[in-house]
């Protein structure tokens, strides 16, 4: 007769999403740190009576709570039907972020919104998503067209590195045409697992003609969208949206991509276009003013060329309609142009 603990369920699986297990990546003990002071928390050693560093081991706390019939915020029952051994990562079944999303969506601030997953938005033609171009080797980074790596996406902006550029002929091979297929106000985000996954940036006018690493996704409102890119940026930077990426990221220690798991991330949908414009006004003003300031500085550089300050790309921006007519913005497996 196999003993079944009191918490055991035939049709459910107990999952601990504890973020720590008492060890660092290097195998050393992980000290518990006070988030307010940054100082290590110390406790009395029962053997010596002296002070020692407390160990940050939430997994042990979960197991002790389970043993004692108690509960923690990182313990959760999941229906056995929902768990797949092909995706047996506890964090994927953590519903706290979805619960928080539902709670916020029920507040007065969001009473005029609905919500959809990214996957549903693609199916409804409200969103288009494509991957980046590819990764030129280091030996060919000697030209005029900027090459954008994941590390160039920071603080909501695409930051061009003037020392990391490729010849135009190389760029066209990665573009598979004469232009990049990118447009001003496109949103771009890392797709590889890292701490900045889910941080969206915006491509400003004059930054379109670049070669991007393949490990990014480029997002654009679809033809059925009742919002513009500035609303999309507003929505994707909400805490209740950004935090959902934590559930679909499996590892931080390698370069594993998130696959298509991000399609389950939920986003608030505005009542109509006017509603979208109203709530996203600060984002629109910020990026528009930033673009205008860049244009003014670019005009100054044209008249005063005695400066080393890289602000644009090798080519002038190409009109989005021209790109669409040329078929430059091609769909990938999960989106359509």
From TrEMBL:
A GO biological process held by the record: DNA restriction-modification system
Entries under InterPro entries matching the protein: Restrct_endonuc_typeI_TRD_sf
Molecular function terms from GO: DNA binding
Keywords from the named record: DNA-binding, Restriction system
Name assigned to this protein: Uncharacterized protein
């Amino acid at each position: 007769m196999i003993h079944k603990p009191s918490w055991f369920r035939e049709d459910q699986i107990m999952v601990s999403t504890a973020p720590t297990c008492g060890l660092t990546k290097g195998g050393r003990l992980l000290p518990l740190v006070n988030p307010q002071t940054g100082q290590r928390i110390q406790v009395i050693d029962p053997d010596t009576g002296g002070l020692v560093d407390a160990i940050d081991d939430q997994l042990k706390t979960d197991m002790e709570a389970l043993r004692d019939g108690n509960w923690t915020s990182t313990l959760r029952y999941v229906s056995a039907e929902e768990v797949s051994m092909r995706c047996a990562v506890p964090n994927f079944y953590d519903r706290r972020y979805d619960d928080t999303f539902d709670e916020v969506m029920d507040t007065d601030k969001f009473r005029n919104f609905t919500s959809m997953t990214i996957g549903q938005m693609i199916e409804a033609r409200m969103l288009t998503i494509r991957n980046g171009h590819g990764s030129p080797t280091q030996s060919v980074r000697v030209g005029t067209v900027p090459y954008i790596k994941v590390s160039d996406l920071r603080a909501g902006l695409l930051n061009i590195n003037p020392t990391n550029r490729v010849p135009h002929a190389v760029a066209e091979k990665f573009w598979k045409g004469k232009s990049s297929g990118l447009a001003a106000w496109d949103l771009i985000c890392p797709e590889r697992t890292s701490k900045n996954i889910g941080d969206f940036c915006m491509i400003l006018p004059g930054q379109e003609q670049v070669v991007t690493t393949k490990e990014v996704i480029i997002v654009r409102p679809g033809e059925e969208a009742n919002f513009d890119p500035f609303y999309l940026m507003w929505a994707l930077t909400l805490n209740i949206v950004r935090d959902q990426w934590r559930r679909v990221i499996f590892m931080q220690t390698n370069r594993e991509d998130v696959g298509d798991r991000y399609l389950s991330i939920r986003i608030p949908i505005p009542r109509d276009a006017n509603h979208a414009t109203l709530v996203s006004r600060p984002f629109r003003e910020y990026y528009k003013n930033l673009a205008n300031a860049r244009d003014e500085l670019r005009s100054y550089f044209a008249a005063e060329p005695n400066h080393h300050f890289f602000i644009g790309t090798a080519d002038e921006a190409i009109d989005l309609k021209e790109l669409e007519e040329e078929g430059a913005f091609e769909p990938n497996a999960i989106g359509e142009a």
